[in-house]
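To: structure desk
From: M.T.
Subject: fold request, one chain
Message: Could you run this one when you get a chance? Sequence is below, nothing fancy, just the single chain.
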Amino acid sequence: MARQASSSPVKKKAAPKATVTQMLTTPGSGGRRAFVSRATKETRIAAAINLDGTGKYDIKTGIGFLDHMLEQLSRHSLIDITLRAEGDLHIDYHHTTEDSGIVLGECLTKALGDRAGIRRYGAAHIPMDETLTEVALDASNRPYLIWKVDFSKPKLGTMDTELFKEWFQAFAQLGGLTLHVWNHYGDNNHHIVESCFKGLARALRVAVEIDPRQTTAVPSTKGVL
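Reply: Done. Structure tokens follow.
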């Protein structure tokens, strides 16, 4: 006698869950693009950028204020940024903040390539109500940070204000930037840090643009950056 087929439904295997370090993309096509993922025992972060974008962003770090600042960076630099991060936020925000700067800095370096054709230098003064911040940078591949920014309180919401220097330090180091950030004055800590990120964005926008007068030349008498 032939065996009857089972009437029990066949269980389908669940699709594998997406991980933070899987490939991310930015909108559209073309442009100078890069993708970087980084996984440690403390964080898992992936980011994609397009230097020639329109300032579109899709950012989730698990830290609301950091998301807000990175969105400002994208919008005002016109660099498209997609970023996902998972970190040990049960400890504090340090590792996720610093490592997001590392990954975005690596993306910048990768997207710039040999840095031929870029304007190289950029600077901005950003007024924000009672606050004024100056940012100047050289995309020289010689990382250095000067940070002249003081806060009147140790926290902004749940985020330690000292972590903003850590982010800028990581971004400058891995992005190959000589970066000077100087808050001339200000009372509101939110305004102070936001003006720093907006200043970086505007200076970066100029520095990484292709100079139409030297589209293939490296902007250095050395011939290399």
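Reply (cont.): The beta strands are 33-39, 43-50, 57-60, 80-87, 121-128, 131-138, 144-148, 155-156, 159-160, 178-185. Let me know if you need anything else for the meeting.
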